[in-house]
Design goal:
The chain is of the alpha+beta class. The chain has four domains: 145 residues, Methyltransferase, Cobalt-precorrin-4 Transmethylase, Domain 2, CATH 3.30.950; 67 residues, no CATH class; 180 residues, Heat Shock Protein 90, CATH 3.30.565.60; 59 residues, Winged helix-like DNA-binding domain superfamily/Winged helix DNA-binding domain (Arc Repressor Mutant, subunit A, Orthogonal Bundle). It is built from 14 helices and 23 strands. The chain has a six-stranded mixed β-sheet, covered by helices on one side. A four-stranded mixed β-sheet has the order 1-2-7-6, with helices on both faces. A hairpin with a 3-residue loop joins strand 17 and strand 18. The radius of gyration is 29 Å and the shape is globular. The protein starts with 18 loop residues before the first helix and ends with a strand.
C-alpha cells in the first residue's frame, strides 16, 4: 500500500492496477482538485517526469498517471497514446541512478487508455535516486506536498552516509587534550575495558587509547569528548541542549508579554545533559495523585523513564557531521505536549514503522554508542544500552501509565518525538509540588520542612525545591537564619 501524509491510498505493492481502483483514485483527485504527495498526474512523459521519479524513489514511493490533464480538472487528454508513453517512460526510468523498474499498467478509463506506473522506493543503501545527467547534488529530489523539490546538499550528504558507516564521532579534536576528559570517568571506563580486553592494553596506554578511539597523539576523539568531557562546549558550543517552556500550544503563543516561561542552555557531557534535561522536565511538569482509602499513586505528566530514553536517543543518534555541529538538540514543553528534536533523521535500516520492534538497532555513531554503554550518569546508572530497546522502553512506559503512544516526525534533516501530556482524571488531585506546598502553608501559620513533607507526602528534596522557588517568587519567607535546624516557613500574607 502506497500512501503519504497528504496522499491517497493507491493499492498494494506489486499488484496490477485495475480500472475500478484507478477510477476511485481519479475521483478523489477531482474532489481534491490537485495532485497529492504520492499521486502525480501528467499529460505525457516529458522530461519533467525525471524529477518526480527521483522524488518518489527517495521517499515512500508513489503513483504516476499519464494521459490526464490536471489543468482541465483531471480529464483525459485527447489522442493520448498509452503504448508510446509506456516506451518513453521506460526510457526515462533508465535516466535515473539507480535505474528504476516500476510496475507499469495500461488501464481503460472513460473510453481511453491511461498509463499508470507504480514507483517503489529505492533501498536506503542506494539513495539518493537522482537524474543521472544532473549529478547527485543537482539531480536528487524530494516530494513536498504535490511538488518535487531539489534536495539541499546537506540532505544529499545524509543519504550518502547510508551507504557506509559514518565516522564523524571518531574525529580527533585537535584543540582538546586528554586533560579535557573527566579523570574519574576516563579511569572507570579504562578499568572496565582493561578487564574485558587486556590484550588491548598490552602495548601501553597510548596504543590502548588509539584502539579504543579514546585519543590519538594526545587529542581526544569527538565521541570521547562528548561522553566523558569536562566541558565539550568549550570546543563545540552548540553541541548542547536547549530547553524551552512555552505558555501555549505553539512557540508563537504569548502570556503576559513573555514568549518563554523558562529558557535554558544546558551544557556538559552527555551523561550530565541527560540528567539536566530530566531535572528540567521534572521541575516543570505537574504530578497528580490518585488517592483511595489506603494508597496514593503519583501520576506525572510524562513518565520520566520515557523522557530519559528519548533524550539519550536524541544525543546518541543525532547527526554529528561538521554541517550539523551548529545545531542543538531541542527540548520544548508546551501546555499539551513535550517535544524532543535532534538534527539528522533515522539511520540505516531503522524506519518509523520499525521503531521499537524486534530490537532492531542501527547506530550512526558507533563509537559514541560504545562509550555511552560503559559510562555512567551522575546518579550511577549506565547512559545507554544500544540494543534496540530504547523505543520499546518508551512505548512500554507510556502504556504502563495508560498514556497514548509517542508520535514521531521524521525527515532527512531532523527527528522529533512527541509525548502528549497526560489528561487529568476526575478522581485525582492535580498540582505541582509548589502548589501543594503553598496550599499547606496557606492553611497554617508556619511550617517546617518535615511538617510539609508529612502533609504533602512529597519527598524532602521536592519540598525543599518548591520552598526555594516560592521564596524566589516572593510568596514565602524563611523565619530563621539559613541552615538553622529550627527553620520554619510562612507565607508573606500571614505577617
Amino acid at each position: 500500500m502506497l500512501s503519504g501524509k497528504f496522499g491517497l491510498s493507491v493499492g498494494r505493492k506489486g499488484a496490477k492496477m485495475d480500472a475500478e481502483e484507478l477510477a476511485r483514485i481519479i475521483t478523489q483527485l477531482r474532489l481534491v482538485g490537485a495532485d497529492q504527495q504520492n499521486v502525480e498526474v501528467k499529460t505525457g512523459v516529458g522530461k519533467s517526469v525525471l524529477e518526480t521519479l527521483s522524488a518518489f524513489a527517495n521517499a515512500s514511493g508513489g503513483l504516476l498517471i499519464f494521459g490526464l490533464s490536471e489543468a482541465d480538472g483531471f480529464t483525459p487528454v485527447d489522442k493520448f497514446d498509452a503504448l508510446a508513453a509506456r516506451n518513453a517512460l521506460i526510457d526515462r526510468c533508465s535516466q535515473i541512478t539507480p535505474c528504476l523498474r516500476p510496475q507499469v499498467d495500461i488501464v481503460p478509463f472513460e473510453n481511453i487508455q491511461l498509463l499508470v506506473a507504480t514507483i517503489e522506493p529505492v533501498l536506503a543503501s542506494e539513495r539518493p535516486a537522482y537524474v543521472t545527467e544532473k549529478g547527485v547534488y543537482r539531480g536528487s529530489y524530494l516530494r513536498v506536498g504535490d511538488a518535487d523539490q531539489m534536495m539541499r546538499n546537506y540532505e544529499v550528504d545524509r543519504l550518502l552516509e547510508e551507504q557506509h558507516q559514518p565516522l564523524w564521532d571518531t574525529e580527533y579534536v585537535e584543540l582538546a587534550g586528554i586533560e579535557d576528559l573527566d579523570s574519574v570517568a576516563l579511569r572507570d571506563f579504562l578499568t572496565g575495558q582493561k578487564s574485558l580486553r587486556p590484550k588491548t592494553f598490552a602495548q601501553g596506554a597510548e596504543t590502548a587509547y588509539a584502539r579504543l578511539h579514546v585519543a590519538k597523539d594526545g587529542h581526544p576523539s569527538l565521541a570521547a569528548l562528548l561522553a566523558m568531557g569536562e566541558y565539550p562546549q568549550e570546543f563545540f558550543p552548540r553541541l548542547n541542549v536547549t530547553f524551552g517552556l512555552y505558555p501555549g500550544t505553539s512557540k508563537g503563543d504569548v502570556t503576559k508579554g513573555l514568549r518563554l516561561l523558562e529558557s535554558a542552555n544546558l551544557t556538559g557531557s552527555i551523561p550530565e545533559l541527560v540528567e539536566a534535561v530530566i531535572g528540567k522536565v521534572r521541575a516543570n511538569m505537574r504530578t497528580g495523585a490518585l488517592i483511595n482509602d489506603v494508597f496514593r499513586k503519583e501520576l506525572p505528566d510524562y513518565p520520566l523513564v520515557a523522557v530519559r530514553e528519548a533524550i539519550v536517543n536524541a544525543l546518541l543518534h543525532r547527526d554529528y557531521s561538521p554541517t550539523a555541529r551548529g545545531t542543538q538538540v531541542q527540548v520544548n514543553m508546551f501546555v499539551d505536549r513535550l517535544e524532543i528534536t535532534s538534527p539528522g533523521g533515522l539511520f540505516g535500516g531503522v524506519t518509523v514503522d520499525s521503531l521499537g520492534k524486534d530490537g532492531l538497532s542501527s547506530t550512526r555513531n558507533q563509537w559514541l554508542a560504545t562509550f555511552l554503554e560503559n559510562v555512567r550518569t551522575p546518579d550511577g546508572g549506565l547512559v545507554a544500552e544500544n540494543r534496540g530497546t530504547g523505543f520499546a522502553v518508551i512505548e512500554q512506559s507510556l502504556a504502563d501509565a495508560l498514556m497514548p503512544p509517542a508520535k514521531v516526525r521524521e525527515s532527512l534533516t531532523s527527528f522529533t518525538i512527541i509525548f502528549e501530556r497526560r489528561h487529568v482524571a476526575k478522581t485525582e488531585t492535580y498540582a505541582s509540588a509548589k502548589d501543594h506546598v503553598l496550599a499547606i502553608l496557606n492553611s497554617r501559620t508556619t511550617g517546617s520542612t518535615t511538617e510539609i513533607v508529612q502533609a504533602t507526602e512529597l519527598s524532602r528534596t521536592a519540598v525543599q525545591r518548591a520552598v526555594n522557588q516560592l521564596i524566589e517568587e516572593g510568596l514565602v519567607e524563611s523565619m530563621e537564619p539559613a541552615r538553622s535546624p529550627k527553620q520554619r516557613y510562612r507565607t508573606l500574607s500571614v505577617r
